[in-house]
Design a protein that fits this description.
Elements (H helix, E strand, L loop, with lengths): L7 E8 L3 H12 L4 E5 L12 E2 L1 H9 L3 H7 L8 E5 L6 E6 L5 H10 L5 E2 L2 H14 L3 E4 L1 E8 L4 E7 L5 E11 L6 H6 L3 E16 L3 H4 L6 E5 L10 E8 L3 E8 L10 H12 L7 E15 L3 E2 L2 E3 L5 E2 L7 H20 L9 H22 L3 H6 L8 H10 L5 H16 L7 H5 L40 E4 L2 E4 L9 E5 L4 H14 L3 E5 L12 H6 L6 E4 L5 E5 L6 H12 L7 H12 L2
Parallel strand pairs: 1-2, 1-10, 2-7, 4-12, 10-17, 21-22
Antiparallel strand pairs: 3-6, 4-5, 8-9, 9-10, 11-14, 11-15, 12-13, 13-14, 15-18, 16-17, 19-20, 21-23, 23-24
């Protein structure tokens, strides 16, 4: 039954209201873009599911003005890091890791990389923040509404949707459509986007329960506890997990099952039994909230868009929860896409700008799926070090663990192998470089003509702070009126920003003229003695990579679009050429545009 004689009209239709979709809707409404967001379910997520919220995701919330609300509901970093490996929560400890950058060495690296901090915010607490922000800023949020099909033409997308409460169907007409509908994406299927990898590689059950475990954990606070126990898990061995949802009385028990035997059914008694097995004390009162199964996937999309439809989040990258990269990458997909959509819809940029979403984010999706797969592979060596058979029983497991304590050459070798395997699992949690070192290469990035600079350390592990075009603007503290301000907070909010120093006043004039020509606001900040912001610590000078009269041009998503080492003879022409390329006004390729800019900078 049709309830609308004419289609509902909007600029962007967002299909899905998870972290990627709700972030997209909140960003679009913040940028003043009319949008409708569909959620086929009657409410936001009622499951904790995703929880690790890394610095780059928190930066998006900071740019949206939501950071304080996020941190008020999240578990802070200092309560996340102590990851204990043991026979059970009450049982013998086998070792510990200081994860999520809580080791003093990694904590310093973490704090230098961003004004924000990693935190643990379960998805059922995050989604209401983003959905509420979207709705209060102008998004039309429609629950119980699912996408059935869609068609594209030269001017837009017509989507057929159904109200699941009434059964009524109607059309929504939009200029663009964002597919944020998760790991079983209708949008991806209808577009026929190519998926690389495999689904259903391993099975797990999540048992959400309430239990006061304070006496077991408050002296060793962490968000995950790992238990070596007999059962079905990695390669037939058992590793169970207790994941903290709220300190220290709400938890998820995670246990594996053999997918080849089909999906098992679990009742409340099974949930209590598994929770007690992982706790190691069956006298602890446990109240089961929910039980659900899920599978480990290893899939990324080789393309994330077609015509006027772009896909974000789990729709285009699905992987193990190792490293906590899923929802964080999903949110950053939307952060990359939405400022581009806004500029195209306002007529400031040619639609070709949207093609850079593919160029910039497909490689990121491929990278994080690969990283999660490799991290998943770090768990089996723990069991291999114990020389366990494929499916050990309780006695076999006990003898293997007892052998770790033997004062013999064999015992020593086993301890060394086990401890090495356990320590190597730090890469399941601490991959700061994967989180922070995205390097974009597209027409929305203009080369400054300098050669590639290799990172001095492993870019998967360590943050690499550089102002090279295509990299994230490094965070340093500057001051204004004696108060510290992060360089991050000088940029963003949907606008381009130009940072320069003493002697760079001509850039301000150039930005004004280029802004007027293209209709694109460009904020300008000077940094240095007696400038808009003081470089009180000297950190901006050290990190900028340019002279005082040079400049950094920063995109709305805090990526460096271009830099000039010094003031060229004609800054107006140079800046104009840069924006012609980024906005797609020149028709030049990325390489051709960069060469044109380099020619203008030549002495």
């Amino acid at each position: 039954m049709d309830t609308h004689a004419t289609p509902v009209e909007t600029e962007v239709l967002v299909v899905g209201a998870g972290p990627a979709g709700s972030a997209a809707a909140a960003l679009l409404s913040t940028y003043g873009i009319d949008n409708v967001m569909l959620n086929k379910y009657p409410s936001v997520s009622n499951s904790p599911r995703a929880h690790i919220t890394n610095q780059r995701a928190v930066e998006v919330f900071r740019d949206l003005g939501l950071e304080d609300e996020v941190l008020a509901r999240a578990t802070p970093q200092h309560l996340m890091g102590e990851h204990v490996y043991a026979t059970s929560l009450a049982g013998t400890e086998l070792g510990r890791l200081r994860t999520w950058y809580t080791h003093p060495h990694f904590k310093a690296e973490h704090d230098l990389a961003s004004p924000t901090s990693v935190c643990d915010l379960p998805q059922h607490l995050l989604e209401p923040i983003l959905v509420n922000a979207a709705a209060t800023r102008g998004s039309s949020v429609r629950f119980n509404t699912e996408l059935l099909t869609f068609t594209q033409d030269a001017d837009g997308v017509t989507a057929r949707v159904r109200d699941r409460f009434t059964g009524d169907g109607y059309d929504i007409r939009s200029r663009y459509l964002i597919g944020a509908d998760g790991g079983n994406s209708t949008v991806v299927k209808q577009l026929g986007l190519p998926l690389v990898g495999n689904m259903g590689l391993g099975g797990s059950v999540n048992i959400v329960f309430e239990a006061d475990l304070t006496r077991f954990v408050e002296h060793r606070p962490g968000d995950m506890y790992w238990f070596v126990q007999p059962g079905v898990g990695h390669d037939g061995n058992g590793i169970g997990v207790l994941r903290m949802v709220r300190p220290w009385n709400r938890w998820i028990a995670v246990w594996g099952y053999d997918v080849s035997a089909g999906t098992p059914t679990f009742g409340e008694a099974d949930g209590i039994r598994i929770a007690h097995q992982l706790i190691g004390d069956d006298t602890v009162p446990v109240r089961i909230e929910s039980i659900s199964t899920w599978s480990v996937n290893d899939v990324h999309a080789a393309d994330n868009m077609s015509g006027r439809v772009m896909c974000v989040g789990d729709a285009v990258h699905r992987h193990s929860p190792m490293n906590g990269l899923g929802s964080n990458t999903s949110i950053q997909d939307s952060y990359n896409l939405c400022w581009k959509l806004a500029m195209v819809l306002r007529g400031q940029a040619d639609p070709s700008l949207l093609e850079t979403y593919r160029d910039e984010r497909v490689p990121v999706g491929r990278q994080i799926v690969d990283r999660a797969k490799r991290s998943e592979g770090l768990m089996p060596p723990i069991f291999q070090a114990l020389a366990l058979p494929t499916t050990p029983d309780a006695d076999t497991m006990r003898r293997a663990l007892d052998a770790l304590q033997e004062p013999s050459p064999e015992g020593r070798a086993r301890r060394q192998a086990f401890d090495t395997a356990l320590q190597n699992t730090i890469m399941c949690f601490n991959t700061h470089g994967v989180e922070t070192n995205q390097h974009y290469r597209s027409a929305a990035v203009v080369s400054d003509g300098t050669p590639e600079c290799e990172a001095p350390r492993d870019e998967e592990i360590y943050h690499f702070a550089t102002t090279r075009p295509g990299r994230h603007l490094p965070h340093v503290w500057v001051t204004r009126d004696q108060r510290r301000v992060s360089t991050f907070d000088l940029c963003g909010k949907g606008h381009f920003t130009l940072l320069t120093g003493i002697g760079g006043d001509a850039w301000r004039d150039a930005a004004k003229r280029v802004s007027e020509r293209f209709g694109v606001p460009i904020r300008v900040h000077t940094i240095g003695r007696n400038a808009d912001y003081e470089d009180s610590y000297g950190d901006y000078r050290a990190m900028s990579g340019v002279e005082e009269d040079g400049m950094l041009l920063v995109r709305p998503d805090h990526m460096v679009a271009w830099r000039s080492a010094s003031l060229p003879q004609n800054p107006d022409e140079a800046l104009c050429a840069v924006f012609e390329q980024i906005l797609g006004r020149s028709g030049a390729t990325s390489e051709a545009g960069s060469l044109a800019v380099s020619a203008l900078l030549a002495p």
